[in-house]
Structure formats: C-alpha cells, structure tokens
Amino acid sequence: MATFYNQATLSYNGNTTTSNITAGELLEVLSATKTALIGTYAANDNVTYIINIVNSGTTAFNGLTVTDNLGAASATVGGVSATVYPLTYVPDSAQYYVNGVRQPDPSVTAAQELVFTGINVPAGGNAALIYQANVNRFAPLNTGGTITNTATVSGSGLSSDITVSETITAAARAMLTISKSLSPTTVAENGRLTYTFIIQNLGNTAAEAADNVTVTDTFNPVLNSLNVTFGNVPWNASSEYTYNNLTGAFATTAGQITVPAATYTQDPETGAWIVNPGVSILTVAGTV
Q1: Segment 134-181, tens digit of pLDDT
Q2: For the chain, does the N or the C end have fewer beta carbons within 10 angstroms?
Q3: CATH of the domain at 263
Q4: What are the phi and psi torsion angles at 221 (to 5°)?
Q5: How many separate domains does the chain show?
Q6: What is the model's pTM?
C-alpha cells in the first residue's frame, strides 16, 4: 500500500495561489513472498527457494521479470570493496507454476544475478517459481554466518518494484572426515606397523564426547602388543578402546574421540572463504 499526495496551483493576473493537499492510498494488488525450504545451510548444500506472487486484482499481470541477487554481499577483494555472490544457480532446476499447474520452464539467465522473464500472474490467481541455488565458496560458514537472498519483481502495470528477501543461517554442526595411512608399507614378519587415522572437522561446531564419535577397524594381518594413542596421549584397553586379538577387530569407546571445530578465513585476494579444519589424530601400532 502506497500513499500519494497532490496539490493544484491557481494563477491569475500575475498572482498564484495553491489548493489544499489531497492524499490517497494506492492499493497494490500484486504481492510476493520468498521462502527457503530449509533455513540453514552448509558448504556445497543445494538450497531450494520458492517465490510466490499473488494477484488480488481483476487484471492479469503479464511479462513480469523476477531478478534474484543470489545473496550478493560486500567483501574486500584485492584491497578494494567488491560484491561477491555466495549462491550459484543450479542449472535446469527452475520450475514455474500458475495457479498450481506446472507451466513450461521459464526463461532463465544466470550470471552473477539470476533473472526469470516472461512470468504471468492471472487475475485473482498466483504464480510460483521454485529453484535451487548451491552454497559456494563465498558463503560464510562460521557460527552465526548468514546469506540474505533478495528477489525483485518488476514489469509493466506495477506502480513500483516488489522486493522480497529470505535469510538462511549457517548450520551449527560438526562435519567429520577420516583418512588412514600405514607406516611402513613393507614390513617383515614379526615387524611393527603403525596405522594413523586423521580425523578432520570441517564444521563450525566441535565434535564433543556427547556426539559419541567412534572409529572401528579390523586389522589384517592381526596386530599384537597394541599401542594406541590419541593426540599423543596413551590410551588404555577396555576403558578407551576394545580389541580382539583373534580377529583383529578394533573399536574406540564412544565419546573418547573429540575433534575441534574448523576456523574460517576470507581470502583477501578473492573474497572466498577458506576452511581450516579442526584435526585430531589417532594412532594404533602393533606387531604382525
């Protein structure tokens, strides 16, 4: 709803006088909303957005354009202020509905911003755009990080553009990976082997005891005289791990492994966020 004002001027014999000011309200019959199906994100997630446009009037709106800024945000790049785009449109993901009925896919231009053209909204009806955007390297992943995504509806028949936004927040969670190495890779009978497990946390939240992280493995050949350390701290059998000398089955006790949260830095040259994983190291050594 917009308020407008108007005043008249009367001129006669070199004199002027003004009328009173009239005020009115322009009822906007077209409205829009923008919604993300899930309000949180993590690196490389695909986020599904819905833009819903409702026409409460008696005249159709045809040929509208919807422009999505893909979360455009300011960043310092190469020492100067620049705009980065933390979302990337997922090709061919757009769907277009009118009054709930699927229409031919809309015309899409995806560059730094995302543009849909040829959107029609019938009188007393609605149109919906559903599409996906990928969380890219310009998205902040730290706790409390957000992406605010704004869309603008424009076109003939509108008294002014319609702008709608949706904000999603970086998910607070651990994201663990594990890799395993062997040293030495060639060993004589009755020689000693060491397995090293590197556990990395790419998430913004530490993996704590309550997360019940465990590592299991079955060593073949079976190891004897086991020596287990976590972060250079010796572990004891039964309390911190279990091991079957006959089968080689090894398992850490739930809650013994913890992994610190990752930290994040923004590259001053590119504006991209760099993930510095939290790391914990488990080693298991034994004689074959």
Answers
A1: 999 999 999 999 999 999 999 998 989 999 999 999 999 999 999 999
A2: N
A3: 2.60.40
A4: -70, 160
A5: 2
A6: 0.81
